[in-house]
Amino acid sequence: MTAREPSHLFYQSRLRRPLVDRAEGVYIWDVDGKRYLDGSSGAMVANIGHSNARVLETMRRQMEKATFAYRLHFENEPAERLAAKTASLMPEGIDRVFFVSGGSEAVESAIKLARQYAVATGQDSRWKVISRMPSYHGSTLGALAVTGYDPLTAPFLPMMREMPKIAAPRAYLDRDNLSPHERGLKYADLLRDKILEEGAETVLAFIMEPVGGASTGALVAPDSYYGRIREICDEFGILLIYDEVMTGAGRTGRFLAAEHWGITPDLIALSKGFAAGYAPLGAMVAHNRLVEPVLDAGGFQHGYTYAGNPLACAAGLAVLEEIEREDLCGNAERMGSALKERLELLMKRFPFIGDVRGKGLLLAFELVSDRETMTPLPAAQNAYLKLVDEAYSRGLIIYSRRTRGGREGDHFMVCPPLIVTREHLDEIVDKLTDSLAALAASLGL
Ligand code: PLP
Fold first, then answer.
1. How far is the CA of 44 from the centre of ligand 1 (A)?
2. For 65, phi and psi rounded to 5 degrees?
3. CA 377 to mean position of chain CA atoms
4. What does the pLDDT read at residue 200?
5. How far is Cα 111 from Cα 106, in angstroms, rounded to an integer?
6. C-alpha span between 415 and 400 (Å, rounded)
7. Under 8 Å CB-to-CB from 413, ≥6 apart: which residues?
8. 418 CB contacts (<8 Å, ≥6 apart)?
9. Secondary structure of 366-426 in the HEC alphabet?
10. What is the CATH architecture of 20-52+327-443?
11. Is this entry keyworded Amino-acid biosynthesis (predicted)?
12. What is the CA 142 to chain-centroid distance, rounded?
């Protein structure tokens, strides 16, 4: 079968890509033998690289024992051990783990636990979950309600309860005289204003990606933002949910991005790098003080059939062990700062790169028609698709989005697996440089 034959499959669009043959380390080969450097770890998933022998061996051993045992009929050891390992990597007190099969489910679960906690503790009036524009928290209707990305949410507005939004801290666009510290506080105080506008007694939680994902292109807030958000949530008794689906499992150079700012959220959503593509797996991790009242009040009215299955959990545990054994958080920090410097150097050669940002190996750059004013490229130029295709033809995979929600713009995620070496960085930057030159020639930039 080739990718060009008609298919019964469908996804988001008519886009068809080559058939994958095999994957190893940072590379993927298609059936024609062409090799691609996975410069975005798929969708920022394959953190430990592809086909890791130790993880495969663990999975093989688990498969020979039991692939599935329903959680209402049996406990299983991989789930117990993965929960304990996960809890050991969380901030103090965040030690109750609820397994799911992906990021949307993890976010959905966090919102539902928060709500059931409020009900169980006599705070029934609290139901609104404030989030940011732009942001991405998943595809299920609950996760979508807190997502700030118009093209994804607009068709479903009549079906879901849209949640209040505040502007994401896109401080890099601001042309004012504020210091980074003041800017961070200014953006965080938008939350305070929104809580007062909505009525604090109606607000349940605030959800944020500590470093933005594809919706904002690796947006990092000024340092002062993070602590101030925590203070505001505490002031009004509002739960703080960190969506670490993309940032978790070492991607930003710490196991959790929250560690960079010493923040302890109340709930954390994990997926993607948590099982690094070896199994569909995610987790919602909560403070024990939220879980106990819900269990006492009759139980958490929520769950998924595949949750906590032994095969996925065995894979997840092997992945976390690999992250520790190979110090992949440390490598993400070291290789991330080297790659960021190289991307910043590209700004000298290509004036249409407006900004380079991110943390660890969650990096992005944004294209603009004028760096001074940060004017986006015209949408009709479709730069976000064209540059990806240029890179693809050269055997490099990067991830792009045209942001909508507050402001439009083309940005590109450069997020290779956390196992990358300096030689891999050379290959990424060389191929990216050629791709940007080709884009400049074709769009007359
Ligand atoms: N939250 C964030 C921050 C994400 O980046 C994503 C996926 O990109 C999700 C949630 C949803 O995860 P999934 O696609 O596994 O449902």
1. 10
2. -90, -60
3. 25
4. 98
5. 9
6. 11
7. 40, 44, 213, 214, 217, 218, 362, 363, 364, 398, 399, 400, 401
8. 47, 48, 49, 250, 251, 273, 323, 328, 329, 331, 332, 335, 361
9. EEEEECCCCEECCHHHCHHHHHHHHHHHCCECCEEEEECCCCCEEEEEECCCCCCCHHHHH
10. Alpha-Beta Complex (3.90)
11. yes
12. 17
Q: How far is 308 from 415, CA to CA, in rounded Å?
A: 28
CA proximity to 160, closest of 187, 132, 139, 135: 139
Nearest partner of 234 among 287, 155, 280, judged by Cα: 287
Does residue 137 have its Cβ closer than 6 Å to ligand 1? Answer: yes
pLDDT tens profile 355-375: 999 999 999 999 999 999 999
Q: Is the pTM of this model over 0.90?
A: yes
What is the spatial distance between Cα 144 and Cα 136, in angstroms, rounded to a whole number?
8
Query: Domain boundaries in the chain?
Result: 20-52+327-443, 55-325
Six-digit token string for 195: 């809580």
Q: Tell me, using a 6 A CB cutoff, whether residue 417 lines ligand 1.
A: no
Question: Which pair of tokens denotes residue 368?
Answer: 């603009």
187 CB near ligand 1 (under 6 Å): no
- 72's tokens: 């209402």
Query: Which of 11, 45, 245 gets mutated to test ligand 1 (max ligand atoms within 8 A of its CB)?
Result: 245
Nearest by Cα to 364 from 172, 150, 139: 172
Q: What's the ipTM?
A: 0.99
Which of ligand 1's atoms lies nearest the C-alpha of 244?
3
Give the chain's length: 445
Q: Which residues, in sequence order, are bridge partners of residue 413?
A: 364, 399
3-state secondary structure of 65: helix
Q: What is the dihedral of CA 335, 338, 344, 348, to 10 degrees?
A: -140
- Fold classified for 55-325: Aspartate Aminotransferase; domain 2 (3.40.640)
pLDDT digits (tens, 9 = 90+) for 170-188: 888 888 899 999 999 999 9
